[in-house]
């Protein structure tokens, strides 16, 4: 997983670019394996789990 992209890489609509289905699926899989809510968003709890792994 990569840290959040800088704001300069946002789309014209002001949203970050879509990370893609495979990235979201990988995040959800990791979250499920680490008893986190599998929402595909790599937030603080996910990053803590990454550092414990």
What does this 3D model show about the protein?
This protein has 53 residues and is an all-alpha fold. The protein has a domain of 25 residues. 42% of the residues lie in helices and 0% in strands. The protein is built from two helices and no strands. The chain is globular, with a radius of gyration of 12 Å. 4% of the residues are buried.
The tally of strands reads 0
Number of helices: 2
Structural class: mainly alpha
Strand percentage lies at under 5%
Radius of gyration: 12 Å
Element layout with pairings:
Blueprint (H helix, E strand, L loop, with lengths): L20 H13 L10 H9 L1
Provide a compact summary of the structure.
The chain is mainly α and 53 residues long.
Entry keywords:
mainly alpha; 42% helix; 53 residues; 2 helices; globular
């Amino acid at each position: 997983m990569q840290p959040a992209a800088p704001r300069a890489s946002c789309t014209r609509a002001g949203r970050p670019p879509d990370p893609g289905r495979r990235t979201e699926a990988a995040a959800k899989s990791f979250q499920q394996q680490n008893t986190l809510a599998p929402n595909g968003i790599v937030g603080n709890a996910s990053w803590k789990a990454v550092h414990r792994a």
